[in-house]
C-alpha cells in the first residue's frame, strides 16, 4: 500500500479535504474518492472483513457479479452490431460465445453462492430482505436466460418457444408475450430484464456492504 492509498486509514471519521487531495493525486482520483464520503457509500470503506469470510466460499457472490458484468458488456456489443455480425463474422461469433459462456459461469457461481448462503444461515435477522432481493434476481435471471434462448432463433429456440407458449405464456399477464415475436423477445432480453437486474444486484451488493457478512451458524 502506498502513502496515497493509505488516506482512508489515516483520515477515518474526518471530513474529506478535496483541495488537499487534488494536489496530492489529481482532480480525477480526488473526485472519485469524494464519493466514499457520501451516504450510503461512506459506511462501505475502510472496513476489514471478518476472518470467517476469508474463504473461497465467500467469493462466489463476487464471481457471480463479475460474470454479470461480462454478460452486460458482451450483450451491449452484440446489440450494437446486430444478428448478421454475430452469426457470420469470426469476431461476432467469438463475442456471442463469450456471452453464452458468461451466462454459464453466472448460473454456476450463483447456485453455489445460494448454497453457501443457505448452509451458513446468512438469511437470518434483517438479512431476510437481501435474501428476498437475491431470490427475485435469481428468478429474473432464469427469465432472462429463457428470453436469450428464444432470441437465438435456432432449432432449440423453436422447441423452447413451442413449449413455453403452452406452459408459461398461457398464464394470465404472461399471455401478453408471444415467444415467436422476435422484436418483443429481444426487447425484454436486452432492456426490461437487464435493467431491473442491474438495479436489484446493485441494491443487493450495497446492502451486503452496509450490513456486513453474517457470522456462520
Ligand atoms: C443474482 C446474482 C447475485 C449476486 C451478483 C450476488 C452477490 C452477492 C455478493 C457479492 C455477496 C457478498 C458475500 C459473498 O460473496 O458471498 C452476497 C451476499 C449475500 N447474498 Fe447474494 N448475490 C446474488 C444472488 C443471491 C441469491 C439468489 C440469494 C438468495 C436466494 C442471495 C442471498 C445473499 C445473502 C443473504 C447474502 C449475505 C451473506 C452474508 O451476510 O453472509 N444472493 N451476494
Kindly describe this structure:
- The structure is a single chain.
- The protein has helices at residues 7-10, 18-25, 27-34, 60-81, 83-88, 90-119, 128-152, 155-167, 182-211.
- Helix 7 (128-152) packs across helix 8.
- It contains nine helices and no strands.
- The radius of gyration is 21 Å and the shape is globular.
- Helices cover 67% and strands 0% of the residues.
- Bound molecules: protoporphyrin IX containing FE.
Determine the structural class based on helices, strands and strand pairing.
Answer: mainly alpha
Basic shape: globular
Query: What order do the helices and strands follow?
Result: HHHHHHHHH
Number of domains: 2
Could you tell me the number of beta strands?
0
Mean pLDDT, all residues: 89
**DSSP strand content:** under 5%
Helicity level? 55-70%
Which stretches of 5+ consecutive residues score pLDDT under 50? none
Backbone CA Rg: 21 Å
CATH architecture of the largest domain: Up-down Bundle
